[in-house]
Amino acid sequence: MGILKDCINKKKIDSTPVWFMRQAGRYLPEFREIRSKNTDFINLCLNPELSKEITLQPLKRFKIDAAIIFSDILLIPYALGQELKFVKNLGPQLGELNIERIINTSDNEIQNKLNPVYQLINITSKDSTMNNKDLIGFIGATWTLFVYMLNRTSPKKKVDENIFNNPDQKKIFKKIIATQKLHIKNQIDNGASLIQIFDSWAGLLTEDKYEKYIYQPTIELVEYVKSLGVEVICFPRGIKSYKEFCDIVKPSAINIDYETDPKNIADNINIPIQGGMNPAHLLLEEDKMLRSARNYLEIFRNHNYIFNLGHGVVPETNPETIKKLVDFVKGYK
Length: 333
Ligand code: CP3
What we know:
The protein is an alpha/beta fold. The chain contains 14 helices and nine strands. Bound molecules: coproporphyrinogen III.
């Protein structure tokens, strides 16, 4: 267990905790090396030894405080029997959704399919690299998984309105939530010390849809994680009001995106906050990049703040930039 958990629990810590979404990924040459020999992304996620190595890669380079397991949110639709392919430059492609097949998938089948993820967590949490560090497990939020399962590809900026007329929506949500709980429980039982819920497509919804598609299912999941004695960080990317989300859903901590005004967040939210910096700022000259980071650190000076970005590290990022940024955050007093 590490200082992320301490920060969330409002214990005294002597530096700002820091990690990055997509810290294990294509910007790292050592990741690309493994990836070039493993062209099937899902098989790579389901290879505990290799995914452990990838999970630990950024910790070997940078003084970061947490590892996030190398996996993917779409392993849930995969475990529910939906066909999943990652096509180069096209992103994820899912097969036709067969409602009967999904609803009738047994817990046994799900756990058997996802067992390599649990092995990955088990062996990673025991590695000496993880001493005093947090190991973050994760799931995609119910709405975001539903979008992928029905749209069957990355939706970019719009969602097909038909999605709101799906007659099986309730049944599908119920099954996704049951599967998410199973997946969370197994991650925690195997050594995940924190859970993050990624609602990457929250920003596609209008506010009249929040209650049904975001708040209700996320409250159920947040309560479930807390009932297991573990803290949960939510990232409802692009939501109109993070404050309203926090008041209703009550996560242990909230990750903000880079478009939301951090001052407004600092003034209105008093639970621990994570992230915010624009990943594109990691492509700027060093002084501009550090100015952007300093802005977040100063705004959240009097908050329990975990440094991170407002979305994932982009593949064009120079690893040296991450190193400079981490050293800056760690040295900031
Ligand atoms: O380092 C980490 O953050 C941990 C690993 C991780 C991955 N995916 C690995 C990955 C995590 C936490 C995710 C979550 C995830 N996956 C989300 C939520 C966060 C977000 O980005 O909004 C979503 C929406 C997905 C679905 C997904 N997986 C997409 C849309 C893509 C293709 C686009 C892209 O960013 O490459 C993936 C593939 C993927 N997942 C890669 C990695 C490292 C790239 C694989 C490759 O081509 O080498």
